[in-house]
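Escalation from tier 1.

The customer reports that the assembly of two entities below gives different structure tokens on two consecutive runs. Tier 1 could not reproduce it. I'm attaching the input and our single run for tier 2 to review.
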Amino acid sequence: MEFREKDIISIKDFSKGEINYILNYSKKMIPYAKGEKFKGILKGKVLSSLFFEPSTRTRLSFESAMNRLGGKVIGFSDPSGTSQKKGESLADTIRMADSYSDAIVIRHPHEGAARLAAEFAEVPVLNAGDGAGRHPTQCLLDLFTILSEKKRIEKNKVVLLGDLKYGRTVHSLAYALSLYSIDLVFVSPASLKMPKEVIDECKELGVEPTQTSNLEKAIQDADVLYVTRIQRERFPDAEEYNRVVGTYKIDNDLLENGKKNLIIMHPLPRVTEIDPEVDKTPHAIYFKQAFNGVPVRMALLSLVLGGEL
Amino acid sequence: MKKELKIPRIKDGTVIDHITPGNAVKVLRILRIPRSTSSVVSVAINVKSHLGKKDIVKVENRELDPHEVDKIALIAPKATINIIRDYEVAEKHRVRLPDEITGIVTCSNPTCVSNANEPVKSRFRVINSDPPRIKCYYCEREPEDISERII
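Tier 1 run:
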């Protein structure tokens, strides 16, 4: 399978076979991601890390991934000190980064920014989140986490919970999960339901998602509970926000209704949606999920830069 | 009673017929008329026909490139293009949307990068021709009000 020089813009650019290949290759990266083994397969390579929006996990894990494979990282995590502030177009910034490095990672507030970057760059572009749009590496690390914990993606019942309307990760994830034969349940407040176009895409792939607002019932026979943050600014008043957030809070009482081997995932940062008491239970996988960003991004960088293990 | 034409026959040129009533002006905009031509252009709006009402555009002394005209299928999917030579219909075809539309419609998503100050034209993939449905190449959103978004 050929990934060299390929842009990583949207999960939809990949076939199921390609996704499986990336996930299997990511598994091989784990000891290297933990620092237990080292092989400088990207030695001499330079990655431009262009973060026009704040990020903790995505930026650090990309940079860690590049360093763990022997490569170097240049870039910025705050555009205020760059020519963007002087009005430079994204296209020109990309042309410059293209000439300074072997690959570009970009997070940008505008949807489609990574696709645009790929048009102006000769080197591969990896999308680290474009506005409310796509975030393919998050999607891949989510799939990788389910695969690692459940040994397969197929046949699981996956509940997606929270802000399903605006949530960047859940749209790509719903699509990607539908490539596998799974049960998909969407739980959200009425005002933050999964958009119809995402549901239609799932159906086109042969998965009929169930929609409900009843979390207790939904998790009874679930294998995976994927929680997302509900943002205060989506609600007209604080009272309504507090009511909704209270309804969807995950704590140990709620989890008594679930299977023993139910895993809880969250793209982080979390606010109040998961009670810290859950962190100590075997259900809590979200910190492991955050770590999985490193082996998955190592696999991607290694594949597009042609330095395979 | 002698049947009268609302706009006279043309000797040579292009007739765009069966335009969805009320959309003739938008068709002109898509075809960049009058900027793209100095020929005489006649427009008839809400003309009665056996299929109800329709709009008609006639461009004299110019044979429009069918691929260019196909773009009007965005707002007039049932339109026909007639190439006229010496008062006769020399060629006739139904408009057919191309696979991709560039620089004609703006993306409805205000935070799409194609609406930022970048050196790119708007670009859409056509996902259905009648009714027309298009998806932004950059942000993957589908504008619902295509006719309102024509540049």
